[in-house]
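Pasting two entries for a bug report.
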Amino acid sequence: MVEQSLVFIKPDGVRRNLIAEVVGRFERRGFGFKKLELRTLSPNEVDAHYQEHVGKDFYPRLRDFILSGPVLLMVLEGDRAIDVIRTMVGPTDALDALPGTIRGDLALSKGENIIHASDSVASAEREIENFFGALVA
C-alpha cells in the first residue's frame, strides 16, 4: 500500500550537516520525494504539530528546540512508508536505537534525536496538512 509520511530533520541534524546523510538513506531505500523544503517553523506550526504534548512539562523545551533553527521538511511516498520509515528512524531515545537506524547511528540523545517521522497514516495526513495544506499530489 502506497503511503505518504511527513519526515523532518530537526535543527540539531541541520546544524550538524546531516541533511545529505539522512536524505541519502531515504533515496537509497527508494522513497519518492513529494516535497522537500528547508525552513524555520513558526510557533503556531510547532504547536499544531505537537498538539498532543502542549501543556506537558517537557513541551517548552521541545518547542524551544524545534524553533532554534531551520528544519528540512519532507513528504516521502512509498510502499508501507509509515512502518518502513519508522523502522529506519529507530526509537526516540538514541540510547535505545540500534546501529543501522538513523538515530542509532547519528543521534546524540533523546532530546537531540535528529529526525521526526509520522507514526500512523492519520498522523501523516494531519502533519502534512499542518505544513502544506493537504496530501501532496
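Entry 2 (this is the one that rendered wrong in the viewer):
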Amino acid sequence: MIDRPAASSLLGQWQVAVRPALLLAAITLHACASYQPLPLPDHDNLAPALDAIRIDRNTMDLAAAQQHPFDPADGLDLWETAMLAVANNPDLRAARSRRGVAEAQVYAAHLFPDPQISASLDHPTGNDAGLVNAYAYGLSYDIIPLLTRGTGIESASAAQQQIVLDLLWQEWQTIEQARTLHVELVTLEQKVALLEHMLDLYQQRYQHSSTALAKGDMTVEATGTDLTALLDTATQLNQTRQARNNKQHDLAQLLGLLPQASLDLQVPPPAEPVSEQDIEAALQLLPQRRPDLLALSAGYSSQEASVHRAVLSQFPSLGLGVSRARDTSNVYTSGLSISLTLPLFSGNRGTIAIERATREQLHAEYQARLDQSQIDVMRLFGVQSLITEQQQLLEQRLPELESMVVKARKAYQGGDISALTFLNMQTTWVNKKLEQLDLAQQSWTTRLALETLLGKTNIDACVETD
C-alpha cells in the first residue's frame, strides 16, 4: 500500500512526465473544430414564380449561357429556360454540394500527418532502498506518409476536377432536358389549339346536321359520321391536354418551380439540321470538349496517382522517434528510436493489385464511352436525315391537301360528296398537321441531343430572329 507522501511524490513525477504531452494536447485541442448540428428541412424549397429565381450568368460554366441575356418579359426562349434550370434545378443544387466534399478532400490531402507522443510512469513495488519512480516520454513520427503525400495530393486534385466536370456534364444534360421539355410543351400547346379549333368546327357541323336530321333534310349516316368525328376529336383533345399537363409539371419540377407558377414559352424557330461536316469535326475534338469524357480522364489521372501511391507504400514503413526517460535507479537517459515494418507477407501487394485493376477498369470504361458516343451520334444523324426528308414532303404536299379539303367541304355542303368521304379527307388533313408538329418537335429534340453529344451549342438557332 502506498502511503500519502509516496502518493504525492508519485503524482508530482507523473505531472513532470506528462507535462509536455499535456501542453501539446492543449495546443492541438485549441485548433480543433466545434460541432454544429444541421437540421433537415421540413418543407419544400420550390419557387412560387420566376421572379423568385436569381439568375447569375457569370456563375454558369456554360459559355453560351453567359453570352445570352435573360429577359422573361417577352416570354422564355430556349436558352432562358435552360438558364432557369441551371440556376434552380433541385438535383443540380444537391449535386453542387459535392464540390465542397471534393475541396475538403484536397484540403485533407495537403495536411501533413500528425506526430505521436507517448508518456509512461512505472512505480517500483519492491522494498529495495534507493528505488525511485521511473517515467518516460517521447515523440515519434511516421516518415512514409511524407513520401506518399505528393501522390495523395495529385490524386485528390484530379478527383476534385472529376467532380467539377461531372457536375458540368449534369448541367449540360439538364439544359438539354429543359430545352426539350420547352419544345415538347410548345408543341402540345399548338396541338391543343389545332384540336380545339377542329372541335369547334365539328360541334357546329354536328349541331347543323342534327337539326337537319330532325327536319328530315339529313340522313342518319351523315349525322352519325359528324357525331363520330366530334367524339373522336374530343377524345384526342382530352388526351393532348393530359399530356400537356404532365409536361407542365415536368418542366416546373425541373426548374424548381411550384406547378401553378406561370410560364410563358416562346415558340422556337425551325431547327436547323447539324451538317455532316460539323459532326465529323466535332467528333475529332470530342475528348477535349465533352465534360463527361473530360471527367473520366480526370478520374483516370486520379487513379494513376493512386497506383503510384500504392507502389510507394510498398516500401517498409519507417518511423523515427526521440525519448527522455528515468529508470527506477534514478538514471536519466535520452534516446533515438527507429521502427521499420518488414514487408515479408503483405508488402502492400494486395492494394497495388486492386489499384491497377481499377485503372484497367477505368481505361475500358473510357473507351466504351467513346465508342458509344460515336454510335449515338451517327444514329441521331440518321434520324435527323429521315425527319428532314418527311418534313420536306409535308411542306410540299400539305398545302395541296388543305386546298382539297376546302373544295371537299363545299362539295359536302352542296350534297355532292358523302359525309364519310369529306370526314376522311378532313381527318387526314388534321392528322398530317399534327404529324407536322411532331416532326418539328422531333427535329428540335434530335438537334438538342446532337449538340449535347457533340459538346456544341448554338444560341442563334434557339432564339427567334427578327
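Dev reply: Rendering is fixed now. As a check, the viewer should reflect this: The chain has two domains: 62-111+145-313+349-462, 116-142+315-347.
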